[in-house]
Specification:
single chain; 420 residues; alpha+beta; FAD/NAD(P)-binding domain; D-Amino Acid Oxidase, Chain A, domain 2; 2 domains; 8-stranded mixed beta sheet; 6-stranded mixed beta sheet; 32% helix; 23% strand; disordered N terminus
Length: 420
């Protein structure tokens, strides 16, 4: 199915103002070498035969997977019910964090380390500013096993790390009150990613390289034995492909309730941006790091939005389609009480922006990237659990290889399989 036929039957593509350069698959295959000799050469020597792939979900996992598949030379269609970077997406909001601190989970720490390099390389390729150096400060009452493990892991991987006492914290960050916190562990190499801008840019690059995007809700359609034949879209049309990747985050349990209904939970979180005092940039990047403690985590002000404050608890269930994105008065009160303690200069400052986001959590916070047990040509990719965004450019490559049946790291495969 070429792009014109697909778009005629399944809806319009993302608006040209957001994503320009949509090209039919045939034209893309012919012009890819002229536009990108290096990537075309790589695709030409790729060992996997060219395949048609549909990726469902244009978030951190899906958009990067689609881009990698297209760069491998495959015909790829990316479907999303609301479009890349939309406000309902788990990968939405303006900012996300990339850091290597993962306790003793070495595979994730190493993936994050590779992702940092990949983000820098992609930022240069895209020509769009996506990364803001900030560092990350973990605050704790005392040394916990997890904090010790993080320090040891960062040291083993050659990353900079610095342990601080409460007195050290007072001297280094006078704009923060460290009351109740006896330990600070600083990872200077951590950064903030401009999240929405990143997803929109990845999607735009995907279309420029010949991929097709359509705004459509889709669900599994007809099957032939162990092969899924097609998808049924919201308007009743069908989309066929050789391979399907479902990377639609909090919608996964709805599409596959028997398989994922008990494996993935979707809680909600209220997010606040507090304005800084006029003329005071002490809590703006790069003057203050990302921070986390038991009750809250947050980021310094980036692009003038204000200090971002996020609670670690909230509603246990959230409907990403229908629930209102309005913060609760209770969470406003809690956030202000936290702010008055930890950042006294912001005690009387206004809330400048709010978000209501959802997570897509597994019980052990491991990703789920595995074949559907009933279909040989369907890969499930989800379970971001609040930490998946940072891995995007690396995990997208991994998911693409898994979808195509190529060899991947057996240890990582075992970690992200559905049944452990």
């Amino acid at each position: 199915m070429d792009r014109r036929t697909f778009l005629k039957t399944s809806g319009a593509p993302i608006g040209a103002a957001a994503l320009s350069g949509l090209v039919p698959h045939g034209a893309a295959a012919e012009s890819l070498a002229a536009r990108e000799p290096a990537r075309a050469e790589s695709a030409a020597v790729h060992t996997t035969p060219r395949a048609s792939v549909v990726v469902i979900g244009a978030g951190a996992f899906g958009a990067w997977t689609a881009l990698h598949l297209r760069e491998m030379g495959h015909a790829v269609t990316l479907l999303d019910a609301y479009g890349p970077g939309n406000s309902r997406a788990t990968s939405g909001d303006e900012t996300r964090q990339i850091r290597m601190g993962y306790g003793d989970r070495e595979l994730y720490a190493r993936s994050a380390q590779r992702a940092m390099d990949a983000w820098r390389a992609r930022e240069a390729e895209f020509g769009v500013p996506l990364l803001v150096p900030t560092g990350r400060l973990q605050l704790s009452r005392d040394w916990t096993p997890a904090l010790r493990a993080t320090e040891a892991m960062l040291t083993r991987l050659g990353a900079r790390v610095e342990a601080m006492t409460q007195d050290d914290l007072r001297k280094r960050y006078p704009q923060m009150n460290p009351e109740g916190m006896g330990v600070g562990l600083l990872e200077p190499g951590a950064m903030v990613i401009r999240a929405k801008q990143a997803i929109v840019t990845v999607a735009k690059t995907f279309t420029q390289k010949g991929g097709t995007i359509a705004i459509e809700r889709a669900q599994p359609g007809r099957a032939d034995g162990r092969q899924l034949v097609d998808l049924e879209t919201g308007n009743g049309t069908r989309v066929s492909a050789q391979t399907f990747v479902f990377a639609c985050g909090p919608w996964l349990p709805r599409l596959f309730p028997a398989l994922l209904g008990s494996r993935i939970k979707v809680p909600g979180r209220d997010v606040f941006y507090f304005g800084l005092p006029a003329g005071d940039a002490r809590l703006a990047a790069p003057n203050f790091p990302n921070f986390s403690e038991d009750r809250y985590y947050g980021f310094p002000s980036v692009d003038g939005r204000g200090l971002k404050v996020c609670p670690t608890t909230g509603p246990t269930t959230f409907d990403p389609d229908t629930d209102e994105r309005i913060v609760s008065p209770h969470e406003v009160h809690r956030a202000r009480a936290f702010l008055a303690l930890r950042f006294p200069s912001l005690k009387d400052q206004p809330i400048t922006e709010t978000r209501v986001c959802q997570l897509e959590n597994t019980s052990d916070e491991h990703f789920i990237i595995d074949r559907h047990p009933d279909y040989d040509n369907v890969l499930i990719a989800g379970g971001g659990s609040g930490h998946g965004f940072k891995h995007g450019p690396v995990i997208g490559n991994y998911i693409a290889k898994r979808a195509l049946g190529e060899a991947t790291d057996p240890a990582f495969d075992a970690m992200v399989k559905m049944a452990r």
